[in-house]
Amino acid sequence: xxxxxxxxxxxxxxxxxxxxxxxxxxxxxxxxxxxxxxxxxxxxxxxxxxxxxxxxxxxxxxxxxxxxxxxxxxxxxxxxxxxxxxxxxxxxxxxxxxxxxxxxxxxxxxxxx
Length: 113
Known about the structure:
mainly alpha
């Protein structure tokens, strides 16, 4: 679902729209599955990823205990690390106290130790 929504939002961005406005609302939704979709909507965007939004979203959801949210944070960061590994490593290290072990492990999964 996140991939489909991501494709729709990327098309909106190309038309000059504010795609993230929709995801800002989803980040605050009571349904954790919608928060998860918001976290993952930029998967595969690579150079088009809004890193500021991604990092802010990761921190906004970092306190959640839900496994699928923690996993999504790491997955979204790991995906972006394919484009900007130094940025993701720096973010993950800088916020290691706020991010869960699962999120950190997933984010750095393919990074050299």
